[in-house]
Amino acid sequence: MNKKNIGFNSKLIHAGGIEDEKGSAVTPIYQTSTFKFKNADQGARFFSGEEKGYIYTRLGNPTIEDLENTLADLENGYAALATASGMAAVNTVYLTLLGQGEHVIGHNALYGPSRGIMEKLYPRFGVEYDFVDCTKIEEIEKVIKPNTKLLYLETPANPTMGITDIAAASALAKKHNITVCVDNTFLSPYLQKPLDLGADIVLHSMTKFINGHADIVGGIIIAKEKEMFDALRYTMTNMGFNMDPHQAYLARRGLKTLAIRIDRAQENAKKIAEFLESHPKVEWVLYPGLKSHPQYELAKKQMEGPGSMISFELKGGLDAGKKVMDNVQLAVLAVSLGGVETLIQHPASMTHSKIPRGERIEAGISDGLVRLSVGIEDVDDLLDDLRQALEKV
Ligand code: LCS
Hints:
Elements: H1 8-14, H2 40-48, H3 62-74, E1 79-83, H4 86-97, E2 103-107, H5 112-120, E3 128-132, H6 137-143, E4 148-154, H7 166-175, E5 179-183, E6 201-205, E7 219-223, H8 226-239, H9 245-255, H10 258-278, E8 282-286, H11 296-302, E9 309-314, H12 317-327, E10 332-333, E11 343-345, H13 357-362, E12 370-373, H14 379-391
Helix pairs in contact: 3-9, 4-8, 12-14
This protein binds ligand LCS.
């Protein structure tokens, strides 16, 4: 049986392809920093690349490779690189593709630090940027310059749920020789495959849906082509952005249930989004599964499902939002997302607080926006919880 042709759920369980010499059914944790060579010549062959073998965990490790191979397979990429965090993945992409005098175009509503670091740190190295509303392809086109090297997208975006047409953006970028990277954290490869739509690189904060249990921080980058992968790998290994084997083991374990977790969370999210939208105290709801979402049709075309992230604002703005956050009893008031537990947080004062207010508002992250990451609890309990918290407003 060709394991390349098995279905998505089968890959979640069986992809990876690392055979353990002792016969362990699950790829074990190779908790080692270094690997023995049989002799000096073999060590030299491993280093020259003449023979494939493990050398040193920053450069490669079977537990980490099992996870990387699985993600590369799920995203239909050439190969993947696991990183210590999602931000290590973001910075690997930035450092690989951008240098002195070069320019990046990013979506204006990225996860706070993905935008913040470009505005604060990269100008020191002479990198230029424009953050625009990439949900409008013409806005991207307007800021393309001869030195533009990277188009950095996040779709759906954190936390505005704005959706960029990956195929259209990639076609435009290709005309100008610009590399496209998509942060696919909000959906995972189960619901969206950016490489199939024309992107060159996909990345994830694995802290979220891929691991799914809110117990590790991690990242992954998947490249469509070997040349790009080699360049990214050079940066990742030499910057020391690598993942630890124990982290990789937990992420690989969590990944096995990705589809059933997402199916359940998404089912819950659809009901919660409808409940919120019809609630008299709610001003608006942004959820790609609602007809009211500005890119509802694009979401249906590009995504396999609307996912389980919801943003909403109450009629009383921030004060009302705080009341809900302070009064939920089952949902957890915490940042992060994509775990089995429902989380609620306030982007303007938490995940996106480092973005200057003017830029934040322009990007659609209002002072009163509340973000919900819907988990896999019983939906009636989640609805009861939100209902009683809303009564306190
Ligand atoms: N990309 C997206 C879309 C994210 O949401 C995050 C983290 C990252 C990248 C960075 O990943 P990390 O280094 O944290 O693994 N998002 C967070 C959030 O919304 N709340 O807390 C963290």
